[in-house]
Design brief:
The complex is a heterodimer. By secondary structure, chain A is an alpha/beta fold. Chain A has helices at about 45-65, 80-90, 105-110, 115-120, 150-160; strands spanning about 20, 25-30, 35-40, 70-75, 95-100, 125-130, 135-140. Classes of the chains: A alpha/beta, B mainly beta.
Chain lengths: ~160, ~140
């Protein structure tokens, strides 16, 4: 088991990384600089990721895409095919990248319950401002889980109000 | 605390009756202890991407296995969404009918099984995993 802990905390500017998209092209983090980025780490087998999946499209992407907000979902350690089916179920129209080796996930992962970072990161949310700085993060907890992503919506509204 | 996925559940197999007889049915009961605060998906999850709990048994001479009976799932509802999860939590029992052939000789055999599952703790969801178990079964005329 890896003993690495999260490289990034709130306030840190995230270095560029690139990951393959489902259509075979490559997405780079720098492509999204200049937008507020909502970064989601997910896995198709995770029931709570499934629960919030429709709300990512309906409540975040559709309502904020015209306000300089970008959604980027990072699926961790799964194959393209299974992720494509997952995406299509809820009609996701935002970019989805696959971190098959879990290397990007590892940089964001919390140290949690002695789990490997690529597992501890699942169902985590980050908001990066237009400069690429982490301004909000939320790790999964059953007690506070909210499929409607209320905390994210509140935070996005706050960031957008600040300009 | 380190979570060992190969031992996250407490699996306790037992037989009813404790000694099996040729030509007589018995039952394998696998008690599954799920850590407090956690749950595993049921044998019939709410949707196709979720991983069902599934018990499988290795084939064994002179014993055939009947249908596997899983307990009723708990419906975990989230009032603010349409989501319903069908899960198991606490301690559950999975039961399997055993049919011992009439020509089975007196002997001791070992029944090997595997439980596939996907679980969540209070703070993390765990990847799909499997846990093995075994139990010695005596067949006496």
């Amino acid at each position: 088991m890896s003993t690495l802990i999260a490289k990034y905390n709130v306030g840190d500017v995230v270095d560029d990384f690139s990951l393959p998209m489902l259509d075979g092209t490559t997405a780079k983090l720098l492509d999204f600089r200049g937008k507020v980025l909502f970064l989601v780490f997910t896995a198709t087998w995770c029931p709570y990721c499934r629960a919030e999946a429709p709300y990512l499209e309906k409540e975040i992407w559709q309502k904020y895409k015209d306000k300089d907000v970008q959604v980027l979902v990072v699926d961790v350690k799964e194959s393209n095919q299974v992720v494509k089916e997952f995406r299509d179920r809820d009609g996701w129209t935002f970019p989805v990248v696959v971190d098959e080796a879990g290397e990007v996930a590892l940089q964001f992962a919390p140290k949690k319950e002695g789990l490997p970072p690529e597992i501890a990161i699942i169902n985590s949310h980050f908001i990066l401002d237009k400069t690429g700085k982490i301004v909000f993060r939320e790790f999964f907890a059953l007690e506070t889980f909210d499929a409607r992503l209320s905390a994210i919506i509140q935070e996005l509204d706050k960031i957008l109000a600040q300009g | 605390m380190h979570i060992d996925l190969a031992q996250w559940l407490r699996l306790t197999p037992s037989l009813e009756p404790a000694v099996l007889k040729p030509g007589v049915e018995g039952q394998l009961i696998v008690e599954v202890g799920i850590p407090a605060g956690g749950h595993i998906e049921s044998d019939q999850p709410a949707e196709k991407f979720l991983i069902p709990t599934k018990l499988t048994l290795d084939p064994i001479e002179h014993i055939s296995f009947g249908p596997i009976q899983y307990p009723k799932a708990i419906e975990k509802r989230f009032s603010w969404t349409e989501t319903v999860l069908k899960v198991f939590s606490g301690t559950i029992q999975i039961k399997v009918l055993l049919i011992v052939s009439r020509d089975a000789p007196a002997k001791t055999v070992i029944i090997f099984g595997t439980l596939n599952y996907q679980g969540c703790t209070a703070s993390s969801c765990l990847p799909p995993s499997s846990q093995k178990f075994s139990i010695e079964a005596k067949i006496l005329p």
